Amino acid sequence: MSQMNHLIGKNKLTKVSLSIGKLKSSLAVIGSSPSVISSKHEPDVTAFDPSHFFSHHSKTKRYTIRDAKIIHTHLLKSGLLQTNIFFSNSLLGCYCKSSSMVNALKLFDTTPQLNVISWNIMISGYNNGSLFEDSWRLFCRMLFFGFEPDEITYGSVLSACSALQATLFGMQVYSLAIKNGFYTSGYVRAGMIDLFGKNYTFEDALRVFGDASCENVVVWNSIISGAVRNGNYWIALDLFRQMDRRSLVPNSYTFSSVLSACATVRELEIGKEIQGKLIKCGAKDVFLGTAVVDLYAKCGDLDDAKKEFSRMPIRNVVSWTAIISGFVQKGDSFFALNFFKEMRKTRVEINIFTVTSVIAACAKPYMMKEGEEIHSWILKTGFYLDPVVVAALINMYSKIGHIGLSEKVFREMEDRVSPSTWTVMISSFVQNQSSQKAIELLQRMLWEGLKPDNFCISSVLSVIDSLDLGRQIHCCALKVALIHDLSVACSLLTMYSKCGSLEESYKVFEQISIRDSALWASMIAGYSEYGFTHLAFQLFREMLFEETMVNQQTLSAILKACFALPSLKKGKEVHGYALRAGIDKESLIGGALVTMYSKCSALKSARRVFDILPLKDQLIPSYFHLFLELFLS
Questions:
Q1: Domain residue spans in the chain?
Q2: pLDDT tens digits, one per residue of 15-70
Q3: pTM score of the predicted model
Q4: What is the separation, in whole angstroms, between the first and last Cα of the chain?
């Protein structure tokens, strides 16, 4: 084995010396060519100071391949390249920062005295160029040649594993880092937390975070951003409070993450508190300004959103899109389009998210003219080539009520549309009561070898009233492996119930291992509607036994069974459950309770329930005759 290693080492040294010779020759040619490195404005070679060069460029952070080759030539001529590891590593950094990883690797392979910094520069260079597989291979090579990684190495390799979604490799790297004494390293733990957070194993990320006490802001940022990325917004806000109690100073990255969490859960007051801390810390940049605008816009406070937007000295495409989408969500198309006009005047780059927001602003019956103008602008700018924009245009014309124009857009872009665009077109047919066209388009989609998604299957199932056709769609769902999707399963239950086949409906229900409230509600409603009240109550008891959360739809469905019997006793029990759950005053439950009491001849109870409901307008027409009967009795 030792002889083999000796031979490998010998061959390596031979290759290195040969490569150095070739490199010197080629650079000598470059050096003799005045068109490449000579200029009347450049200093003489003999007066060149490499230390000054690296110091100057590290401050400006600007490197080009030409800069790297010039300094490479000077270092070769001066003989410093092979004797000074600082200069060779600095040159490696030049090549990496100028995105010339091929030249960086050539230099790396011909450097006789590598150290851990050399390896770190190369691994980071590959990461910055999104060459994550090369980064992993270089790390393996580093271990093979017996170099000891440091915390920077481990952190960089964990970042590569995160980008590659290679959780298993990342865990191996983390175990090695712990074994080698980097258990408390913030850089290593942040890398592992980020790996778990980006690959949807947030519980593991929390475990790594809690393994040791840490005052490193980077680690806290990793766990907070991981919580936000995985939809654990309240955990993110709680972590931020813990960070604040420890007197750790947040940075821009921290504030951006928690403001995003507040915006998503519509917590404006908490967001304002965080904004206050942000102002005290003096943190200020375009990303934070955008996060604040987005917070106010998503929480519906558009006056303050406009104020914050007007205070931003620099606005990017994300800032403009945030304010535009805020007005779209509020239903204020006029202001949304006005901001879009202003954005175009400033010549800020416009992206797909901006375009789809503006299209959504025009998706109203009275916005036909504006919609056509935006469509015309999209054709001129080339955004029509993007399938997401095509889908948004189809949806816009559908909501305006011009399904024919939706079809026209679809036909014109049919050779470029994605499966999701077909889904939008099918959904548009369903929304416009063109059920036959929706079914035919699904058939065409299958003939062309495209796989429908869960939304597509669910949309078509909602308009099917033929048992044979429903069974065919059921087979299609099986073939494309969507049968266990909850939305598809719920649609199948409803379809079979609507077609009077409760037996097949229950078979689908039994096949689903994880059932949500909507699935239980659909099955209970089917039994209630067709008079199988005992089965409806049996399912409701099973649901409670499994501790599945009971929502408005479920209680409304079981109340139908109560008045179908009729059973005032059972209805009161359900009413009690709604009271304990705090949802008795919701319009859906309130309406079902009024119906249940009235059908069970308890009109006074029906009136009492009706009187305490906050929103009565939608119930008055339906129940007017009930209360007329009450007053006459």
A1: 515-633
A2: 333 333 333 333 333 333 333 333 434 434 445 566 666 665 555 556 678 877 88
A3: 0.70
A4: 104
